[in-house]
Structure formats: C-alpha cells, structure tokens
Specification:
- The complex is a heterodimer of chains A (273) and B (310).
- Chain A has 273 residues and is mostly helical.
- Chain A is 71% helix and 0% strand.
- Chain A has helices at 2-27, 32-35, 50-55, 62-93, 99-110, 118-127, 135-142, 147-158, 162-170, 175-186, 188-204, 207-212, 221-226, 237-271.
- In chain A, helix 4 (62-93) runs parallel beside helix 7 (135-142), helix 4 crosses helix 8 (147-158) and helix 4 (62-93) runs antiparallel to helix 11 (188-204).
- The radius of gyration of chain A is 23 Å and the shape is globular.
- Chain A starts with a helix and ends with a helix.
- Chain B has 310 residues and is an all-alpha fold.
- Chain B is 73% helix and 0% strand.
- Chain B starts with a helix and ends in a 7-residue tail after the last helix.
- The model of chain B is unreliable at 1-13 (pLDDT under 50).
- The chains are: A mainly alpha (273), B mainly alpha (310).
- Chains A and B meet through helix 1, helix 4, helix 5, helix 6 and helix 10 of A and helix 1, helix 3, helix 4, helix 5 and helix 6 of B.
Amino acid sequence: MKKAAKLAALLALLAVVLYPLLWMLATSFKPDNEIVGSVSLWPKEPTGKHYPEGWSAMDVSFSTFFRNSAVIAGITVVANCLSCLLAAYAFARLRFRGRGVFFAAMIGTLLLPGHVLIVPHYILFNFFGWIDTTLPLIVPKMLATEAFFVFLMVQFMRGIPRELDDAARIDGAGPYQLFWRIILPLSRPALVTSAIFSFIWTWNDFFTQLIYLNDLKNITVPVALRNFLDSTGQTSLGPMFAMSVLSLLPVFAFFVAFQRMLVQGINTTGLKG
Amino acid sequence: VVKPSAAGPPAAHTKPVKKRREGIAGYVFLTPWMLGLLGITAVPMLGSLVLSFTNYDLLSPFSEVEWVGPKNYVRLLSDPHYGHAVRVTLVFALVAVPLKLSAALGVAVLLNRERRFTGWFRGLFYLPSLLGGSVALALVWRAMWSRDGAFNSLFGLDGPNWINEPDYALGTLVVLAVWQFGAPMVIFLAGLKQIPTELYEAASVDGANKWRSFWHITLPGLSPVIFFNLVLETIHGFQGFTSAYVISGGTGGPVDSTLMYTLYLYKTGWSEYQMGYASAMAWVFLVAIAIITAVLFSTGKFWVHYGDNT
C-alpha cells in the first residue's frame, strides 16, 4: 500500500514536470482561436499550419537558422572533443615539468564564470574583424577552453589500467603511439559523453550567439526564436510554439538516443571530483 | 652477475631519453590548451582588468581611450540599476538554489527505493534540465504565465500577467529554475547508491525510524554530493541570463525585477557600449563568485563528511 502511494506521488510529480513540455507541443498544433487560455494537452481541431508559417515568419527562413546552428554545433563538437582529449592525455598520463601547476590552472578555470571574459573577448574578436562570423564561437573550442571536458576526460583516463601502457611501452611504443593505440580507442565512452554534452550546450547556447551574430543570414535558431519577442499579437503565438518545438527536437533526439550515457556522464564528473 | 651488467648501461642510457621524450610530448599535447589558457583566458582577463579603469566605449578608436582610475568601481556604488541587479541575483540564487536542491534530494530519495520504472522516472525528470536553459522553453514560460496563459487558466485564477508584475516576475524565473531539478537529482541518486544498506539495517535494528535514518545516515553520507551540487548550482544560479532575458524581453523589467547581474552587464556593454563600466562589473562579479565559493568551501569543513564509515 505504501509502495503504491509512493508510485502515485512520483507519477503526479512527473505529470507536473512534463506538463509544460506537452502543453508546448499541443499548443503548436492548436488553431489560433484555441491557443488563448487553453490548458488542454490535446488540440480540438489539430492543425499543422503553424509549422510552415513559423518556418518562413522572418525574411530569412528557418532552414538558414537551422543550418547555421548545425554548422556551429558540429564544428564545436569536433574541435572541443579533439583539443580537450589532447590536453587530458597530457594531464592524465605524461610526466613533464610544470604539470601540477598547469593542472591547478585548469581546475581554476573550471569554476571561472564565462561572463567575466565576455567583454574582453568581444573587444578582441572585434579587433580581429570576426564579428558576425562563426570564428568567435569556434576558435576558443579548438583551444580546449572548456575545462569541464578536460576534467571529464582526465577522470576517465585515470581509470584506464596503467598495465596497458606498460605493455605497449615494452613493445617500444612512445607517448604518441601510446595515445594513438591505447588511450584514444579506450577513451571512446568519454568522447561520446563529451560530444553529446558539447552538442546540447552549443545548440542551446544563447548569450554568445546573441552577441557575436547580427545579420539575419548568420544567426542561429535560439537568436532567431528571440525575434518572436518583437512580434506582438496572438497570431504569432502558434508559429512561435511550432518553431520552439522544432528547435528542441535535436536535443530531444540526443536525449532519447543517449539517455544512459548522459546520466553516467554527470555521475563520473560529479562524484569523483 | 652477468645479467645486471648486460642490462645496466642501456637502461641507464635510455631512461633519461625516454623521460625527455615524454616531457616534450607533454608540451606537444598541451599546446592547444596552453594557447587557450593564454589567449582566451589569461590575457583577456588582464585586459578586462585594465579596461575596467578606462572609459572604453567600443565605438571610438583605442587612441581616445582615457584612463579614469577607479571611477567605474565608484559608480557601481551609486548606480541604482546595479543595486537592483545585485539584489535580484542574490534573491534568485538564495531562493532558487535551495528549492531546486531540496526538490532534487526529495525526488532522489523517493526514487532510490523505487524498483519499478526507475530508469524511466530518472530520465523523464532529467529531461527539463536539458531543455530548460533554451530560448524555446523561456518563450513557452512567458506564454504560460501571461494573463490568459495556462497557469491562470489551469487554476481558474483571474490572475495577472505574472511576468509583468514586479513582485512576481522573478518568481516565474525561480519556478523555471526549480523545474530543472533533474540534473542534481541524478547526482543525488548516484550518491545514495554509495551509502551501504547495512547502515540502514543496523539503524532499524536499533529502533531508528525513517526520519532518524534520513537525518543521521542519508544526510551525512550524502553531504559530499550535496556540497558538490550546492557549489555547482550556486555558481550556475548567479550566471542566469537566457531565461531572464527572454521573459523580460531583454529589459530586465518590470522595474528591474528580473535584472539578473549578467543581463545588466549585457545591457551595459551591448546596448550602451560602456565596455569599461561593464568590465568593472565583470571583475566585481568574478571576485564575488570567488568569495562565495571560498565561503562555501570553508563552511564545508563543518558539515561535509568524507568519512570512511559511509
């Protein structure tokens, strides 16, 4: 009996938690006159018209915004994973002078709020003439500036048995072969986790994309969605909901496909720290 | 007698060479990170410190930039918007973080003993943490809490447009933050699994009730994880931008009631182009976060147990 009460409580909570998401989905299919004041999770007269409406609600269509977002997220994932993997290997496996100091610096940047650097970054990239290009969003990722991922990979690599290194060393492998033959293949789970988080965070990122991208042709999905704030009137609500749903689909797809890895990823970084 | 002499000389020879090779490799692998540390972190940080003592406005050339001394910092003290931003951010963090962590802990405890559908519950509770930081969800929130939005309709309220009410607008942001309790919950769940069940069994043999076991076993055993979540969520809470920006339409209104620190920094830098002043704000922010983190760590000594007994 008590167990049933617990399950009921969890289910009730789940309903509350999922309501906003389901309501958003349902509202995107409701005709205009049904949207206002509607709480139902099922449109009475479902219509798909908000999707094409929203897709071309601005002078540039959402295909451009989605392409821009995908390009930035795609390059970020690769650049981030690669640069952080290299740094993590050095921290986790190689002995060299100053490693301790560098590692402490890396941990220090882990807690550094990104907003502190946004002003000098903007001035620097403005000086380079990079405003309204993807470079300010991508170049920092090529330089392993996301300490979170370095840390995650270091933690993972420390779990790879040292005996494998020793065995390879006896076979005459140097630090580069060791990386290529042992660490890289065995780090795949950490790489996948990093790739997923990196993708989701970049896809959802708003602040930096808002600052660096101006021209309608160059903006990403979140910045485009922001433009719905300027359009007033109830008729813009439907398209806004429709595009919001579409903008979340890639993240949702990643969630469905990699749910277990995401949960494990939080745990490895969260608990061994 | 023969073996050591045969193995001796080459080993003595190759070891330093190998060590040096490894040392060089270390720097090779670390090159991108070092460039980043230097070019993307250290130099810009120093640059922003210098800027904070100037009147740089982004539009005029560098040659016209003037050194103004601590003027920007003094100005913070008398800027009413800045005062609001500090208050809003503190209130947000002080209310949202404890609520979020309590929700996370409560659900984790409920879920920990639940054997059926655990994976489903965990995943679905976690979903808002992935989606909640997006512009899309903030737009949905804006619509939900409007005058004829779902919240008023759901409870049959003749309520106001909550996001236009100075007393309630920040509350809607808090609810949005608490709604994303899934990420700390997942960490709590993993922490709960580390607490040996024998402790609970021993406690119940000794006649402890559920509440006492929670108080004397669960909380101390979980304290490192609570601490980790507290530090992470506090730092995260102070940096909230997207939801405040979207819900207030980029203004931080009504009457500065959702003017989160980073939103004011953004407005100062990118609407008014006062980059020097914004840099001063950024540096105060950095120091404040460092102090708060240090305070959290120093209090941690008193309530975080890294015991061998758990």
